[in-house]
Amino acid sequence: MLVLVGILAVSAFVVGYLIWSGGGFVTQPEPVEIVHTIPGFSLRLPQVSDVPAFLSIAGEPEAMKHQGWDAAMLASFGQEQRSLTLDALQKSTMVAEAESGEVAGFTWWGSRAGDPNQISIGLHVGQIYGGQGVGTGLLRAAILAVQGAELEAWVRAATTNLAVQKIMERLGFSPEAGIEPHQAPNGETFDSLWYKVGLGARPPR
């Protein structure tokens, strides 16, 4: 019960901080509160100082494979991230931070099929933090946030990405019928499953 209350607190806080406006998120000048919802980790909004950790996690071989990136794309992503203002960076929903102060994982809000009104929630968790509930906690809090704001949202999982599929099953979500091709930034096409998690979807377990 205490964990659920903590997660709902994060959801309410993030929805209050990120407002959907004209196809983009506009950050509001509210204080950032850190709420512990995963044993040994805390959830918070991203800071500019997190960018190197994001690049390190996104550059892990398994993450690159599932994201459909190559080394040149990661370098380009790094340049873009470093040039972002804090407001732009905080389009990411939240960061999981270990007790050591290291970034363990993060989520962000992209778009499905290029439609800014259809949010696609992405997830990256550092390999050394796998199996510790980080991905489940991050996605649960992100889903509660978009549901609280009554936004259309999905989570995409490549058919080969069993880790995300297991997380979604654990949270009580089933994929939409059918397998949909998804073209990655490097031009590769991945067979993907889409999970409806936003407006009209059930709350996560």
Characterize the structure shown.
The chain has 205 residues and is of the alpha+beta class. The chain has one domain: Aminopeptidase, CATH 3.40.630. It has seven helices and ten strands. The chain starts with a helix and ends in a 9-residue tail after the last strand.
Key words describing this protein structure:
disordered N terminus, eight-stranded mixed beta sheet, Aminopeptidase, alpha+beta, 205 residues
Summarize it.
This protein is an alpha+beta fold.
State the distance separating the first and last CA atoms.
12 Å
Structural class: alpha+beta
Question: Using only CA atoms, what is the Rg?
Answer: 16 Å
CATH class categorisation:
Alpha Beta
Nearest-integer average pLDDT: 79
Low-confidence stretches: 1-36
Provide the CATH architecture: 3-Layer(aba) Sandwich
Count of folded domains: 1
Major sheet attributes = 8 strands, mixed
Question: Could you give the topology of this structure?
Answer:
Layout: H1 2-17, E1 18-21, E2 24-27, E3 35-38, E4 41-44, H2 51-58, H3 61-67, H4 71-83, H5 86-89, E5 94-98, E6 103-112, E7 115-125, H6 134-148, E8 152-158, H7 162-170, E9 180-183, E10 189-196
Parallel strand pairs: 7-8
Antiparallel strand pairs: 1-2, 3-4, 4-5, 5-6, 6-7, 8-10, 9-10
Helix pairs in contact: 1-6, 2-4
